[in-house]
Amino acid sequence: MAGQLDPSRISIERGSGLPLADQVYAAIERWIAAGAVDENTRLPTTRELAAVLGINRGSVQAAYRRLQQEGLVAGRVGSGTTVRGRGPARLGARAPRVEDLLSRRAADLADETPLFTRSPWVADFSRLAPDERFFPLEEFTRTLAYSWSRRRDLWQYAPPLGLEELRSEISRRIAEIGITRTADEILVVSGAQQGLDLLFRTFTDPDDVVAVESPTYSGALALARLAGVRLLPLPMDVSGPDPEPLLSHGAKVVYLMPERQNPTGVTANEERRAALLDAARSAGALVIEDGYEEPEPGRLPLAARDAEQTVWLGTLSKDLVPGFRIGWIAAARPVVERLARMKKATDFQTPVPLQAAVAAFLRAGSDRKARAVRAEEVSLRSAAAAAALAQSLPDVQWWGGEGSNPLFWLQLPGGISGRRVAEAAAARGVGVSPGQDFDPRGEDRANVRLSVSRVERRDIPTGIALLGEAIRQVQRGSSAALAAPVV
Q: Which terminus of the chain, N or C, has fewer Cβ atoms within 10 Å?
């Protein structure tokens, strides 16, 4: 007789060599095939099942995705995951559900459950976004109003690569950090996220290998999964990403953040930069350098060291104004022309008046004035966070946080779950980003990321003290679980 799914009947054999996700999938698939589970039965949440089985939540999520791809279960927002069974669809029985029509790419996109449990936050360290209070809003508004009202040429379509005056200004700016590109070798895009999406669409096919830092930017991971590529993790250390996996396995594309890498805050040293480029050349891979932070004085970007193989991805979003959605790709002309063709197929252009206003804004140096004021404040916030961590969490090690670097990558004690720490912190009104969000394999990590870019200095000590309480709570729970008798 069919019934509910009993999680305790799922047997996990850790020494079998079979991935845990495959074992969970196989067990549930057998029960559905045998009719042992009622149709429309709600399966346990991924968190619940992972806790019962004592495995990583990412493994359960992978099993559920595979079941959904094969039509055995359906995921509904607010209703969880329910059994569909193997029976043939009855024509005309009901209108198709959105879940039934999703492509595999869309179905595989992670449903990021917000950790918000309290409002307002005591301290929200989870957001890497500039504090808009340091932006000269009135000055930019005047520039935008002038562009819109006085220049009728901005009411028409822009050239395929973007407004020439903006591309010329970008060309001048990146030349100051050693990247030599003409205006015709620059494509204006609607933020770096669109630029990265265009690069994946243009230069990868499903199952191609893309090498990424581990951990890395969560937005890049989402786009890579949407593109169906296979990810090759390059483990991070204090010197930058390790190029050894790239030498051993090769890749078609390499995505890197040499400056203040997100989420670790690590700036790659000279030796590591040279080794990464050598490894990429050996693999014949296209290098995408995410320049969301300009290089520190004296450091050359990868794009200045190898202009033919490296693409520079720039943006105003991460360090100035996210709402502008203005970014650019600087690369060899054949690369830019192919990217422009792809952009035109999906998005004719980035708003032209905004391009003109940004060009004038950059030409006046107004962005640098705003950055300087912001950097001074972030330096004070980072120093406050370092002092608070030393006081409230003396046993926790971290990377980042130096100078005006807003990022702190915490290594949690005892290898405890970053996801559980983030949840416990959120319950106390403190936002942090769990390491799992940045893991190429989607696995829970003993890390959390803190960003002080938007947190008032006066709130930082209290927020980190509450984070310390959350960490100790999770530690106690982990110790209790280990001490429980096996029956």
A: C
Instruction: Please provide the CATH number assigned to the domain covering 138-364.
Output: 3.40.640.10
Numbered ranges of CATH 3.40.640.10 in the chain: 138-364
Q: Where in the chain is the domain with CATH 1.10.10.10?
A: 7-108
Tokens at 416, concatenated: 């405890």
Q: Which fold has domain 7-108?
A: Arc Repressor Mutant, subunit A (1.10.10)
* Integer Cα distance of 102 and 88 in angstroms: 18
Q: How far from each other are the two terminal CA atoms of the chain, in whole angstroms?
A: 28
Nearest to 311 by CA among 333, 284, 343: 333
Low-confidence residues in the chain, pLDDT < 50? 1, 87-93, 482-487
Buried b (16+ CB within 10 A) or exposed e, 48-57: ebbeebebbb
Place of tokens 């099993």: 63
Give CATH 3.90.1150.10 domain extents, the chain. Answer: 123-128+369-483
Q: Could you check whether the bond before residue 263 is cis, i.e. omega within 30 degrees of 0?
A: yes
3-state secondary structure 190-226: CHHHHHHHHHHHHHCCCCCEEEEEECCCHHHHHHHHH
Q: How far is CA 284 from CA 252, 278, 287, 338, in A?
A: 7, 10, 9, 19
360 within 8 A of 136, measured Cβ to Cβ: no
111-139 core/surface letters (b: 16 or more CB in 10 A; e: else): eeeebeeeeebbbbbbebbbbeebbeeee
Of the candidates 437, 441, 389, the residue with the CA atom closest to the CA atom of residue 413: 389
Cβ–Cβ < 8 Å for 63, 28: yes
CA distance 182 to 176: 13
Q: What is the pLDDT of residues 331-356, one digit of tens each?
A: 999 999 999 999 988 887 777 878 88
- pLDDT value at residue 304: 95
Q: Please tell me the distance from the alpha carbon of residue 315 to that of residue 133, in angstroms, as a whole number.
A: 19
Task: Identify whether the C-beta of residue 431 lies closer than 8 Å to the C-beta of residue 425.
Answer: yes
Which residues neighbour 456 within 8 Å (Cβ) at sequence distance 6 or greater? none
The pLDDT of residue 463 is: 97
Residue with tokens 């930082």: 460
Q: What are φ and ψ of residue 73, in 5° steps?
A: -135, 165
**Has this prediction a pTM greater than 0.85?**
no
Distance CA 375, CA 365 (A): 16
pLDDT in tens, 92-113: 445 566 666 667 666 666 655 5
Closest by CA to 312, choosing from 186, 396, 132, is: 186
Contacts of 384 (CB under 8 A, 6+ apart): 452, 457, 460, 461
Which fold does the domain 123-128+369-483 belong to in CATH?
Aspartate Aminotransferase, domain 1 (3.90.1150)
